[in-house]
């Protein structure tokens, strides 16, 4: 894995898609094309103080001339969205990473059901654009309190046409996972939005017999587990046999860095996927919000995840 390219991009346009959500178009000041990406990808936006926030790309993956993101102002958030709303006007510059995709469309699926809640519409709009372009079968379920509070609604309507179902609380329509129907072979579900929506989709579908590996979701919030008490453990480096002690008050990533391992990282919160590394044995306490279940048997995020007693790392 290599470190992600960071680019200084110019804000080409900035439009309020709802009173709380700013829709930005970003271009390279000198190059006509940006690095390629696939639907579901996100970029890291670097704040002036060095912190990093992740935003899904919502534009057209086939359009290499620009990236589009949408940022909801979170007054009670960690400060990144307020900075973006106050600063990123047309002509301003933003430091943005090359895209990474932790939430891809399943290449083997025959039908895709997209469920968006609020600002979670962003990766799913890019997916809808890609599915339209490929002629794939899909349906789009959009949940919001009201049409006025649904970010990018006009774009979703234009892209999805009759495949769109809107679930607006103001109209008394609440999304029910049962509306997705039974688990037809080859059908995959992708949910992005508030945690309670994603939990309801997953629980509702699994209860109806959907295989969990066909229900995909995207999280940008770190897992909240205030009751977690970290324990020390040993990390063995497979290539050299070196054993590193990871104390309770340090992350595995910190210990690896101090030992000279140059691992990439970005969020250091378990949400971006940058620091992923392989392991060979050991019982891992996965504390990230990004690694799919299918990869947890031999991959981990050392910025937040730990081991019970010991782990052998593929380094
Ligand atoms: S640095 Fe983001 S998941 Fe580890």
TrEMBL record:
| Pfam families named in the record | Fer2
InterPro entries, sorted: 2Fe-2S_ferredoxin-like_sf (IPR036010), 2Fe-2S_ferredoxin-type (IPR001041), 2Fe2S_fd_BS (IPR006058), Beta-grasp_dom_sf (IPR012675), FAD-bd_FR_type (IPR017927), FNR_nucleotide-bd (IPR039261), MRET (IPR050415), Riboflavin_synthase-like_b-brl (IPR017938)
- All residue ranges annotated as the FAD-binding FR-type domain in the record: 1-106
> 2Fe-2S ferredoxin-type domain: from which residue to which, for each copy?
233-315
Q: Which UniProt keywords apply?
A: 2Fe-2S, Flavoprotein, Iron, Iron-sulfur, Metal-binding, Oxidoreductase
Per the record, the coiled-coil ranges are none
Entry-linked PANTHER family: CARNITINE MONOOXYGENASE REDUCTASE SUBUNIT, NADH OXIDOREDUCTASE HCR
Official protein name in the record: Oxidoreductase
Q: Which organism is it from?
A: Methylobacterium oryzae
């Amino acid at each position: 894995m290599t470190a992600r390219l960071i680019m200084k991009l110019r804000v080409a346009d900035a439009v309020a898609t709802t009173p709380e959500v700013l829709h930005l178009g970003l271009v390279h000041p000198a190059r006509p094309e940006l690095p390629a990406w696939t639907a579901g990808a996100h970029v890291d936006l670097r704040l002036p103080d060095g912190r990093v926030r992740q935003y899904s790309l919502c534009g057209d993956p086939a359009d290499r001339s620009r990236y589009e993101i949408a940022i909801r102002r979170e007054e009670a958030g960690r400060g990144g969205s307020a900075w973006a709303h106050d600063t990123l006007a047309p002509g301003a510059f933003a430091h943005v990473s090359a895209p990474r995709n932790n939430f891809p469309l399943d290449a083997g699926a025959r039908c895709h059901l997209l469920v968006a809640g609020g600002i979670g519409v962003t990766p799913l709009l890019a997916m809808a654009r890609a599915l339209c372009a490929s002629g794939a079968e899909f349906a789009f379920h959009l949940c919001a309190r009201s049409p006025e509070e649904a970010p990018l609604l006009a774009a979703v309507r234009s892209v999805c046409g009759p495949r769109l179902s809107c679930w607006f609380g103001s109209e008394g329509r609440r999304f029910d996972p049962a509306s997705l129907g039974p688990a037809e072979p080859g059908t995959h579900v992708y949910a992005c939005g508030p945690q309670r929506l994603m939990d309801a989709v997953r629980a509702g579908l699994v209860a109806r017999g959907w295989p969990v590996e066909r229900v995909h979701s995207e999280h940008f919030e770190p897992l909240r587990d205030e009751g977690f008490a970290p324990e020390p453990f040993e990390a063995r480096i497979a290539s050299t046999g070196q054993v590193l002690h990871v104390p309770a008050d340090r992350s595995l990533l910190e210990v690896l860095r101090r030992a000279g391992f140059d691992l990439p990282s970005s969020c250091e919160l378990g949400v971006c996927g940058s620091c992923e590394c392989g392991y060979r044995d050991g019982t891992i306490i996965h504390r990230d919000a990004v690694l799919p279940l299918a990869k947890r048997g031999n991959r981990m995020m050392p910025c937040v995840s730990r081991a019970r007693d010991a782990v052998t790392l593929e380094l």
